[in-house]
Amino acid sequence: MSSAAPRTTGQDHLWSVDEHLEDILTTVRPLEPIELQLLDAQGCVLVEDVTVPVSLPPFDNSSMDGYAVRVSDIAGASAEFPAVLAVVGDVAAGQAGLLHVGPGQAARIMTGAPLPPGAETVVPVEWTDGGLGEGPATGMRARSLAPEGAEGHVHVYRPAEARAHVRAKGSDVKSGDRALEAGTVLGPPQIALLAAIGRGTVRVRPRPRVVVMSTGSELVQPGEKLGSGQIYDSNSFALTAAAREAGAIAYRVGAVADDAETLRSTIEDQLVRADLMVTTGGVSVGAYDVVKEALSYVGDEDEPGSGIEFRKLAMQPGKPQGFGSIGPDHTPLLALPGNPVSSYVSFELFVRPAIRTLMGLEDVHRPRTRATLTARKALTSPKGRRQFLRGTYADGSVTPVGGAGSHLVAALAHADALIVVPEDVESVEPGSEVEVVLLG
Question: Percentage of residues in the chain with pLDDT exceeding 70?
């Protein structure tokens, strides 16, 4: 992160959503690349192109269990007049020192085994008698149970074209091809490809470590008994899960009581494992908004450039926000409001893009689309505020879920989109086209 202190615009400045997001994304920088073992690199972003050192497959091999034969030896074969070939042995996957298949001969071959010299095609075992002389076979007997199956003769009941059931060398990727491009997120298929071409390690940007903590003396952990005036802490669970879904390694810290010194020390203790810190609650104008009390400082001579700026945004929900850096490494910190919907919407708009930026991704935003509003009545929105309403999206239409209240967790649980109402719009009629942020 840049060591420059967050810019100051005055307490009365009303930031737009775009200004706040731009400030975050121009301050946060991608993490430095490191070399990781393949499984440790899952979910990370490649920082360099990966070239194929060896073709896949590296040799011609069989795609079936059957017999490797010459095409001319089985031409015209039928159930009435089968071709009878001498079996010269087995060719198994991973076998070295291959047999040679000559005229009138066949080698019993297993799926993935190299095509032996002299052979031109593979006949599936179901097209033969399996060397048993009992009509069409349904499969091969295990070599340990019937070693004689690799000797004697086999009856072939159908002809086959050249290279039938043969996977050609390099038919997947060829040596020198580009296997993966820089910027690719490594999921299971990409890790499989890297392993298949012999890469044991890969150079990536690591998944960012995100520490999430909620504040409030009223918060109780799920599973404990609620006392008078208490509520369960849902924000830290929601935001930790959201950070993991965005690609981060996320750590949840239990709710911190409304005490500025306790909060400050807790944050400082967590810095050792954080590339990004997220707090929720305590950023408004109340007497117990301890995040502002604990972190509203410009920094001192031991932490030059640090400081959190608290802002008012022209949005609903989520008007109070905080952003800046803390600690000797200038770890970015985003302070979100405490109401559950405000907190989650703020995460989607600001924290998720920050996480994706730390990962080194080019596209850090949720996809957006236009949709037709389906509603019983017009949506209202406060003038001068960009409103984000929960909704469900399907087949080009979006329907509001719940009301505008920032405490409606149940409605949020059923939403898969955010309906965006611009700052200059105070009413949206049913049937109107609206912008929609797709959440999943």
Answer: 90
Predicted TM-score of the model (pTM): 0.83
Question: CA–CA separation, 212 vs 352, rounded Å?
Answer: 13
Which helix (DSSP H) or strand (DSSP E) does residue 420 occupy? strand 417-421
351-381: per-residue pLDDT in tens? 999 999 999 999 999 999 999 999 999 999 9
Look at residue 4 in the predicted model and tell me its pLDDT: 38
Task: Tell me how far apart the alpha carbons of residues 184 and 204 are, in angstroms, rounded to a whole number.
Answer: 9
Tokens of residue 381, six digits = 């929105």
Residues sharing a CB contact under 8 Å with residue 105, sequence separation 6 or more, in sequence order: 69, 70, 73, 85, 86, 87, 88, 118
Q: What is the pLDDT of residue 398?
A: 97
The pLDDT value given to residue 403:
65
Give me 10's structure tokens. 């005055």
The alpha carbon of residue 35 and the mean position of all alpha carbons in its chain are separated, in whole angstroms, by 19
d(CA 372, CA 29): 37
Q: At 227, which amino acid appears? A: G
> What's the number of CA atoms in the CB half-sphere (13 Å) around residue 397?
8
392 membership: H or E segment, kind and range: strand 386-394
Count of helices and strands (H, E) across the chain: 9, 29
* CB-based contact 388:412 (threshold 8 Å): no
Q: Is 352 helix (H, G, I), strand (E, B) or coil?
A: helix
Upper half-sphere CA count for residue 30 (Cβ side, 13 Å)? 19
